[in-house]
Amino acid sequence: MSDFLRKGFLLGLGAAVSGKEKLEQKLKELVDKNELSQEQAKTVMNNFIEKGDMKKNEWSSKQKEQTQKVIDDLGIATKEDITELQARVAQLEAKLNGEN
Predict the structure, then answer these.
(1) Contact at 8 Å (CB) between 16 and 52?
(2) pTM tops 0.70, yes or no
(3) Can you tell me the mean pLDDT for 70-95?
């Protein structure tokens, strides 16, 4: 499942890079034709980058959720589970040592 998500992310990343390059080229053409000011082109590009960052964060969040679901489904112990068990073992050892 993780490989599927990774491939999907890389596909999206490739599309975004390609899209960014094409957008830059188109914006340059529009600026050269005086159909768009340099400032407007920067604004459009910044909006594109901002939306890309939002999507990246969304993908990251979804990947974390999916990974957590797989961990839960497989019953894999988390760091928190292990830390809790270590604390319980330490308490039991302390009780045993106190009784001897």
Answers:
(1) yes
(2) no
(3) 93
